[in-house]
Amino acid sequence: MLPLQDPSRLVENVPSNPTLALTFALCSLPALAGYYYLYQHDKSRSFADGPRRIRGDGFPWFGYSPERQPRSRSKVSQGPLHQIVAWGKRLAIVTKPMLLVRIESESKSVNTFTPRQDKIGALTGLQDPARLTEVMEERILPITIKALSPSGLISSGLQAAFDQALMSITSELIAKLRASQGHATIRLSDYVFQSIFRATAAAFFGPTFPSSDPDTWSDFSTLISEIHILNSSISKWPLIARKARSARTSMMRTFVRYLEDWWYADGYDRIDGISPMVERFLLAAKEEELGLEEAAGCLFSVFWDAVVNVSSTSFWLMAQVLEDDSTSRAITSEARSRSDYSKARILDSTVHETLRWAPLPQPVRHTAADMAIDVDGKRYIIHSGTQIIADMSDFHFDEDLYAEAQGFNARRFLDDSLPLPRPFGEGKHMCKGMHLAKLQIKSFISTSFRVFDFKSFSRSLD
Ligand code: HEM
């Protein structure tokens, strides 16, 4: 049995990075110069029904702070579809549920290919990610629909494999803490991200993937904090992007090494403990005649989706709950009185509240032709080349739907009549891993509160 009184003292910080301030300063210069240019440039032009001038506080990505604060709602709601130009790019921000689905159904030119290709290119560093993107859309995503459905997760054993791996990682941590005789300290962000990273890797890839190797974790965590650089136009700047590019190359090598024996055995081999879903990805990659690096990139992309958002949601949840004694006690008591986390009501409500409240990714589409759409009696023109982003924060922070919407209320969704948050996108490209994500989060939080007594470092120092 696992002890209940382990002295895990956890600090609620996101990973700090000594080069962050310098990077930010360097990144800000071109951004500010670009902003000034666009401001001047935009003053001299007007769009009839097209993009408006950008405002400082209107950038979708500027509202996201890594600090533990309620996010600020846009001061004035800009309507269900507003358009801006940022650094020469046209953006259309959709804020009404189901509007993205309508836009997709009214124009065949609206697609996920371009944003997916950009994302795969940034994450894998592949010179030409077009072929992999095509295979992801046509072969890999259809596999995930069934494999990651509630019944698929049970029949494939993926859910059980995640739970089991998490237990063994937690036992390992307990042994380390015991050996340190109560003097070890681990940052909350490291505990959360690393546990979910390792448990997901074990469930997806089996024991031959080096998930417990500190170098693998170090590369992955560097990428988490630096991916914004690889996603930006400064990704080729040698000084700034060097660290991120080297972590990416190293991570890709890890996937290549994991795969190569199987790959060159032409499928006449089996990777020990691999999940049936990942095995099907590999068979599809072979059938489509992808290269080894592309196959590695395919696994890396899906793995990234399965770890990063789940970890950040779990982190935000823990950071909130640890500041709230009553919720903390309620979740602990639920976790210790029942082993089936899927039936824990307060935990379930807290997960939904975190998905409503925390900053999470936004669905992105690309338009390859001009289109017009009528919304609430007004006609909008979306020009070819526009990126359409669905931002549900107006919905998530709507005071008419959620009382005191800016606040975090762990018990909010005990009220079954409330509409559930919409963090997983919508339509045919809605998140394929949403069921797995909720299980991963609940399994992790429930295991953590069952076996550890948490103390918030900042409070204990007061
Ligand atoms: C809290 C955790 C998660 C959040 C908030 C999240 C959110 C999202 C969002 C917003 C999208 C874009 C949807 C759209 O474009 O309409 C997406 C796509 C996707 N997610 Fe997740 N996700 C999470 C966890 C996961 C997990 C665990 C997996 C497992 C592999 C996963 C796999 C995917 C895949 C494969 C897609 C692409 C779907 C497609 O384009 O058809 N996600 N996710």
Automatic annotation (TrEMBL):
Q: Which UniProt keywords apply?
A: Heme, Iron, Metal-binding
SUPFAM superfamilies in UniProt: Cytochrome P450 (SSF48264)
Q: Which InterPro entries match?
A: CYP450_sterol_14alpha_dmase, Cyt_P450, Cyt_P450_E_grp-I, Cyt_P450_sf
CC cofactor: heme
Residues where heme binds: C431
What would be an example GO MF term here? heme binding
What PANTHER family does its record include?
24-HYDROXYCHOLESTEROL 7-ALPHA-HYDROXYLASE (PTHR24304:SF2), CYTOCHROME P450 FAMILY 7 (PTHR24304)
The family assignment reads: Belongs to the cytochrome P450 family.
- What protein name applies here? Cytochrome P450
Species this chain originates from: Candolleomyces aberdarensis
